[in-house]
Amino acid sequence: MKIALLQLNFIVGDFHGNGQKILDGYQQACDQGADLVVTSELALYGYPPLDFLERPEAHDIQAAMLGELQKHIHRVGLILGVSERREGPGKRLFNASVLIQDGEIRQRWHKALLPTYDVFDEARYFESGRDDVFVFDYQDKKIAMLVCEDIWGGAEILDCPQLYQRDPVEELSKLNPDILIVPNGSPYHWKKGNDRLTLVGRVAQQLNAHVVYVNQVGGNTDLVFDGRSFVLDSSGKCVDVAPAFEEAVKVIDTSTSDRMDYLEDSNLENLYQALVLGVRDYMKKTGHQNALLGLSGGIDSALTACIAADAVGSENVTAVMMPSPFSSGHSVTDSEQLVTNLGIHSHKIEIESLYETYGQTLEPIIGWHPPGQNPGDVTEENIQARIRGNLLMAMANRNPGTLLLSTGNKSEVAMGYCTLYGDMAGGFAVLSDVWKTLVFQLAKHLNRNRKMIPDHTIAKPPSAELRPDQKDSDSLPEYDVLDAVLQAYLEDHLSIKKILKKGLADANTIEKIIRTTNLNEFKRRQMAPGLKVTSKAFGSGRRMPIAAKL
Fold first, then answer.
1. How big is the chain by its Cα radius of gyration, in Å?
2. pLDDT tens, 182-213?
3. N or C: which terminus of the chain carries fewer CB neighbours within 10 A?
4. For 253-295, what is each residue's pLDDT tens digit?
5. Collapsing DSSP states into helix, strand and coil, what is residue 70?
6. Eight-class DSSP state of 219
7. Using CA atoms, how far apart are residues 278 and 273, in angstroms rounded to an integer?
8. Are the CB atoms for 240 and 181 separated by under 8 Å?
9. Three-state secondary structure along 253-288?
């Protein structure tokens, strides 16, 4: 059977645009000889729709669009992800996939397992499907359908906890399907794709059936969907796979004996492409054409500038250099070299006079000390960052369609080594889920073919340059130690005791890192949204109290 995978980039709530994109993909697939066409999860809505699902008029619009789509679906069936209304006690909706053929809905499956961990909160909106699993005949094949999380009921095979009492795959194994269709809304994070392939491969073996796994692609707010839809044969081997981070209409013949490698997803190029796609789609889907950022001469702002240029084009990126009395000369020259390398626009604004004015104004009220003279007091340091934030926000305000990108990395955000209303100012936090050590790796990766980021930017010790001779290591552990401890705590959820057993640092260092991270939750709540690219990002997937005993 020839099955088409519609790996498309949807806008949440754009029912007309999403519907037209699905119809165009359907017609393209039919022209390529498809027997069956499959979309991703909640394709008409775009995933995740969140509280859009609580708006009754949205369902009316979706129903109207679904009716229009049905008119154009002929003998080649379309499996489409939608929400469906329900009656009775419980939630008002099912997360559903339906088979449309000859203008009618012939089959439907209501998602049974509703994830409520990390960025997912589907039980907030949907009722769990309680129908028995089933197979249906389609062109002499026994077809089964499970929606996304429904194949993760037995996820302990990946050393994950079993979260559900029900395992639809186990139930389905008794019905001997030939093909399992799995529509997905599965966001990217570092190394996740390999887990997907392992899990789905074992599902294919358990069912002794082909598995058609269809994922959406594109950025939706803080999530990036990598696509990478695939088909596995009954032995769990990959028959074919759609490209990562781009739209595709992929027609795959399940009768083929050909096999191909599933691309490794733990490489730096994948991570970089995820960041580029996330920025591009966030700007496009929120109506921004131009990117603005402060360029300090440091590695974080340099990498952010590279991502922005690749996302929206160099001609649509403006960098602003704002040296203070404590900025080193090479910070300006490194920034100027990067501007030249990328071909982006730039401005230079000296902030020394503004800084002096702040000092003169505040001296009679709170006193004023040269930075570094009063240890533990960062007021004079933070003023510099806040001056820069004000200037950047003024430029963004003056130019409609301009988005200010903040440049802080995950390590700094975790430790609160950033200034509210200063370097945290902005509309989108590009690197907020990228460890500092990974920032260095990405910078070197970008430079492998041609020099984009100046060598000196990569080689010099990281510094905020807000006081004389300042280095990040004056306030923080070395980044290789810091990142290892933070990853163990935030992503692997290890206790202090278990982190200590791993030998990552001494007990005092570990305790200080974790205490500092917990104390700075209030700052992260005020941070701009950022892209999730690891298994646990700050933002919607990490809900920690601010007022708590730490």
1. 26
2. 999 999 998 777 788 889 999 999 999 999 99
3. C
4. 988 777 777 666 568 999 999 999 999 999 999 999 999 999 9
5. helix
6. E
7. 8
8. no
9. ECCCCCCCCCCCCCCHHHHHHHHHHHHHHHHHHCCC
- Token duo for residue 12: 């949440």
- Strands, E, within 164-296: which ranges? 179-184, 210-215, 217-220, 223-226, 230-232, 238-241, 248-253, 290-294
Active site residues: 41, 111, 148
What is the C-alpha separation between 343 and 354, in angstroms, rounded?
29
Task: Phi first, then psi: give them for residue 410, nearest 5 degrees.
Answer: -65, -35
- The number of CA neighbours under 13 Å toward the Cβ of 342 is 32
Beta carbons of 43 and 183 less than 8 angstroms apart: yes
Helix (H, G, I), strand (E, B) or coil at 57: helix
Q: How far is residue 144's CA from residue 183's CA, in Å, rounded to a whole number? A: 12
Query: Token pair for residue 506?
Result: 């001494």
What is the per-residue pLDDT across 87-109, written as a single tens digit (0 to 9) for each? 989 999 999 999 999 999 999 99
Q: Is the pLDDT of residue 173 over 60?
A: yes
Angle ∠(474,477,479) on CA atoms, nearest 5: 110
- For the record, the structure tokens of 227 come out as 């696509």
378 closest CA partner among 508, 483, 294, 470: 470
Inter-residue contact 254 to 239 (CB < 8 Å): yes
Nearest alpha carbon to residue 182 among 132, 137, 232 = 232
